[in-house]
Amino acid sequence: MVAMTTRSCPCGRSEPYEKCCGRFHSGAAAAPTAEALMRSRYCAFVRLDAAYLLRTWHPRTRPVRLDLDPAMRWTGLEILGTTDGSAFHTTGTVTFRASYRGGSLHERSRFQRIDGGWVYVDGEFLD
Ligand SMILES: [Zn+2]
């Protein structure tokens, strides 16, 4: 497992995992905003939770299977901006930088709300 230096959630928020993304991963709650879903998906990458990633992927763009690389060491998530994506919207975007040992991923992701739950549609690489 990923070694944690603090008890805060891997997504970068100060709450412990169980009170943050863990609620979404377990299915106890649904991410209320596109940003919350984005954070929980980053956190799922950290925790190698491929099932959660597939479950929160739009059926139209979802890969058949997802093989996560256990050697990948994610080191942090920075949310750079959002558009829409609240409880009052059906679409939204989240621009972020996700860092890993040796590099980072700068992306603007598109999200859609289906049956009340946010799902990831696709993303555009920046830089
Ligand atoms: Zn979290």
TrEMBL record:
Domain YchJ-like middle NTF2-like, first and last residues per copy: 33-123
Superkingdom field: Bacteria
Family: Belongs to the UPF0225 family.
Protein name, as recorded: UPF0225 protein Sdagh_03130
